[in-house]
UniProtKB/TrEMBL annotation:
Belongs to the short-chain dehydrogenases/reductases (SDR) family. This is Putative oxidoreductase. It comes from the Bacteria. InterPro entries: NAD(P)-bd_dom_sf (IPR036291), Sc_DH/Rdtase_CS (IPR020904), SDR_fam (IPR002347). PANTHER family: SHORT-CHAIN DEHYDROGENASES/REDUCTASES FAMILY MEMBER (PTHR42760). Keywords: Oxidoreductase. GO terms for molecular function: oxidoreductase activity, acting on the CH-OH group of donors, NAD or NADP as acceptor. It comes from Rhodococcus wratislaviensis NBRC 100605.
Amino acid sequence: MLHTNTVATRTGAFHFNGEVAHVSSILDGKTVVVTGAASGIGRAIAIGAARHGAKAVIVSDVEQTPKEGGEPATDAIEAIGGTARFHRADVTSRSEVDDLVAAADEFGGVDVMVCNAGITLADDGADVREEDYRRLMAVNLDGVLFGAQAAARTMKTAGRQGSIVLMGSMGGVVGAGFTVAYSTSKGGVVLMAKALADALGPDGIRVNSICPGVIDTHLLRNTPAVASAADGFRQRTPLRRMGQPSEIGDAVAWLGSDLSSFVTGIALLVDGGLTSVV
Ligand SMILES: NC(=O)c1ccc[n+]([C@@H]2O[C@H](COP(=O)([O-])OP(=O)(O)OC[C@H]3O[C@@H](n4cnc5c(N)ncnc54)[C@H](O)[C@@H]3O)[C@@H](O)[C@H]2O)c1
C-alpha cells in the first residue's frame, strides 16, 4: 500500500514528502540485502532499492537507529509502499552474515547483495595502532568477503545470476596520509571485486565495487581528519560539491539491475570527478 503522503504524477513517479519515492522499476522482482544499512550510504542504498522497485529489502546493521537521526530505513521503505525487514548482523561474524543472507529466503533468496558496512579510524596515519588496524580490517575487508561468500553460495545453489556490490571508496583508488589502514582496506575491496568477478563469472554472478568520493554522512562528519579535509576536497571536485548518499544508492541500483548485465569486475567511481583531476 502506498503511504497517504504519496502522490502519483504524470511521469508515473511517486512523490513522498516532497521526495521522488518511486523512480524506476529496474530492480523489479529482486530481493536486495544491504549491510551497514541503518545509517548513511547503506540506508540510502536500502531506500534507493525500494525506490527502484525491489521486491523486498533486508536492512542489516548492528543497530537499527540511524546515526544521523530520522526514521529507521525499514519505516521509510514501508512508507513508500516497499517491503523491508531489519536483520541484526555484525559483518565481522561469518555465522551472523550467513544467517543474514538466509533471511532473504523469505522472499525467494538474495538477488542483489550489497556489502556496504565500513568504518574509519580517528587516528589512521603511518603509525596506526595494531589493534585499530585489525578492527578496521575485520569490518571493511573480512566483513565484505563474508557477505560476498554467503551470497555467492546461495546464488550458485539456486542457479541464480545475482549481482554482488562491494563498498570500496575513492580511498581505495588513491591514497591519503591520514587514511593509511582505510585506504589499504578499500584497495583490497577493489581487487576483491575483480578477483571474485573472475571466480564467479562462469556462474553468471557479477561482482563490482563502488567507490564513492566525499559523501555527506555521519561517518564523514565524525572522522576529524576527513571532515577537516572535506572543504579542500569540495573545492577540487569538478562538480564543486559533496555527494549525497542517495546518489550512491542510484549507482548501486544500476549495478544490481539487469541494465548492467555485462558489467563485472569494475570499480565504479561516484566522486563528482575528484579522482579524475590533479
Ligand atoms: N561517507 C563517505 O564519504 C564515504 C566515502 C567512500 C566510501 N564510504 C564507505 O561507505 C560505507 C558507508 O559509510 P557511511 O559514510 O554511510 O558511514 P556511516 O557510519 O554513516 O554508516 C556505516 C554503517 O555501518 C554500520 N556498521 C559498522 N560496523 C559494522 C559491523 N561490524 N557490522 C555491521 N554494520 C556495521 C554502522 O552501524 C553504520 O550504520 C563504508 O564502507 C564507507 O567506508 C563512505
